[in-house]
Beta-amylase (Chenopodium quinoa), 724 residues
Amino acid sequence: MATTSYFSSLLLSSVTSSSLNSTHRKSVISPVECGSISGQNGPIRLRTGSGSSTRRWAKVEDRGEILESNCGFPVDINDDDEQFVVDSSKEEVVETIPEIPERDYAGTPYVPVYVMLPLNTIDMNCGLVDPQNLIEQLKILKSINVDGVMVDCWWGIVEALAPQKYNWSGYKELFQVVRDFGLKLQVVMSFHACGGNVGDDVHIPLPHWITEIGQSNPDIYFTDKEGRRNTESLSWGIDKERVLRGRTAVEVYYDYMRSFRAEFNEFFEGGTISEIEVGLGPCGELRYPSYPANHGWKYPGIGEFQCYDKYLMKSLQKAAEVRGHVSWGRAPDNSGSYNSWPHKTGFFRDGGDYDSYYGRFFLNWYSKVLIDHGGRVLTLANQAFEGFPIAAKLSGIHWWYKTASHAAELTAGFYNSSNRDGYAPIAAMLKQHEAALNFTCVELRTMDQHESYPEALADPEALVWQVLNAAWDVCIPVASENALTCYDREGYNKILKNAKPHDDPDGKHLSAFTYLRLNPALMEEYNFMEFERFVKRMHGESVPDLNCPREISLPESQEDSQEPEPEPEIKLEENCSLNRLISGCPKLEDMVLEGSWEDVEAINISSPTVRSLTLNFEEVFMSGKHRTNVVLDLLNLLHFNYVDYLAIHYSMNFNYLVDARIDIVLDLENLMQISEVFSDSMVELLHGVSSAKHLYLSGKCMEALNCGQPKLPTFNNLSCLNLV
């Protein structure tokens, strides 16, 4: 026992990752209302006859098996039924719902897929953070044919200390790494601060010299009616005011973009940079900062107008004078606060002041300031980037969309009430400046919003349809990204549906999709397999598991049950080469060898396409035979599951391994005679999987190591170790 403990410590000392975990999620807890369970291929909803709203959950294996639930009755998986049935102890109503088959996207237009890099990829000193880990992650993304990555070039980092003193060093190193992998780059000119919004896990302020100006002149920031300043981005009121040490705001943006263009000319000319997204407001989006979390906003509050700095107020007063109504030179005084609901305000309620003569004047002015700002900055962006593709991002403000006023959109600057299209003028402005549109929230489903917060009267699907069609109507490219983290098939299917509308007579489709965001959760085995599947479908490739639903039902009665048909087997003749069979499968990705292979002394597998390999020879455990060699040359393998007697020699070539599960058996009768061989064999096996991020070892692995004094490999990438 002491020896086992020693080798466990030795193995742990070989792990260099600072984020080691002792367990890994093998199953998920899926919380649902009224017994709803999310299955592998989509939502499976169970309705009980009691009408109870008790919160139900089920623990589901990665492959779909139900482990346990609090539904009060057993729930099983069946593959052969066309429907599922739920009958909780014969006291509940039985409901059957047919599975809706997924659409096959094979042969559809190719939509490039990018992945946003973490917000802290570059530190405050403009250094590349953890380049080795980034390299490993890019290897994995490249292995599933992701087209490229998106990165924020933070104004607060590059021009941090003094005007026109730019430090691009960390970005140069990053761009070289990306180019070496043959990936493309979407680069965001991020003229906003980071921190305080949903998903922000770092704090990157505006440049220090800007904040110094703001201390003496706080009106350079957007301001709400209580006088609170929002330091996330500069007010559009100073676009043409020389208050930034002799320069206007748009001149500052232009100088920054021009410096970037000169500094990274080789990446433009070489084709690594595919697009520049120009930051136009908070979060890089063309909108007012109307719903700031650091000022107390919570979903689904309507937000507040952000026009109370002296520069925007001066603009409003001038517009009122020109209109001949000096008294209109003020913002509404009955529009509520950040967390108000429309019907509780005099301005946004049905028939409220938003639709009065004054309300229409104010909202026209407020949205025009937004559109004019976008036009000014994009004009200079085109000059700086000399006709190179540029884009602008709009946020998907979907709450209160089903009300007449669309209050949350109005405070953000989108004049999109029920009797007016607020996105067509923005699309026209983008068309004028030859800019593409990037829109968020394409993964959200209206029914989910209604279930989680019905009072918000949200409709993300209608909003996405409206915005995408406004852009397509003026023939500008439309890209998109998800608004919230997305790992499930339902979300991916919604993105696909928006990316490639099935019934569009003109065959319109998105020009690109950017996934938010690269993180450890995405790299978990099941999440990453779903993401890889999504990428293939965005690329118009076929996937092997379409229309193979897994259903949920109660166990059948004994008299109705039937023995399942055995799965077909591939039988190889004694002289047949396994690699000869594999060579005839140029698109093979998932490979499983299992059953009785005791007469095969050596396993030799080579394939450039296999992503997942299972060698499960549990049936030969009684034979007591150790194979002579296991040779695995699988450059793009991500997932490895190995169950067998420990072989004498191992040779493995895995470049992108994410996880490995090792469960070996020893010939205990001859343990003393060949103990040193076992130890050396186990070290060779561990060397083969030393690049994995997640590693699972059985107790027999430790026992094999105990047979000698081995020198273990270093596990540079390991973040999760499970010894069972």
